[in-house]
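Task 17 of the worksheet. Students: predict the tertiary structure of the chain below and write it out as structure tokens. Keep your answer in the requested format; marks are given for formatting as well as content.
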Amino acid sequence: MFRLVDPDPRFHRSFLEAADEFAAEGRPAYSGLVSLPAEDGFPGLRFSREDVADPAVFARYVEHLLAERLEETPRPAAYVPYTVRWIVDEHGYVGRISLRHRLTDLLLTWGGHIGYGVRPSARGRGAATYALAQMLPLCHARGIDPVLVTCDVDNEPSRRTIERNGGVYEDTRQGKLRYWVPTGPA
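Model answer:
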């Protein structure tokens, strides 16, 4: 059975295994590791797979993810606060889901409010569908209704995940299917 939890250092080993699965698939960005560019007033920030192999660095990475929920956390100007939750099961880390607290022009076209990634070995078991369903009340509590969720035009499993959660197709932009998902009570 899946659960959504706040990022936590206790998932270190299974997180690294998942990051390795994403890298082997050719999609290392799906692991959720952070690389933020430096700009005026922000020094930049990077947590690579090699960095987080060290438990102390992994703990700092977890602290960073939790701090991203706060408006006052330093970040590049084009980035918005977000809440990330980890999808876990009895074996550990399965994936992640993130709620961006507001949309920029880029997110309105391409990224949406919510993004998620499930490690390859855990796909096809309903983890993403579960996680999206569990995030909708958080969206509603933040006053986001409906929430924009996008996926690649050729990502049939993600399309089904969004539609199972009530997503209403709006259009396709720059290779992304765009859906609005209601977050309030039916």
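Marker's comment: Residues 3-181 form a domain with the Aminopeptidase fold (CATH 3.40.630.30). The chain has one domain: 3-181.
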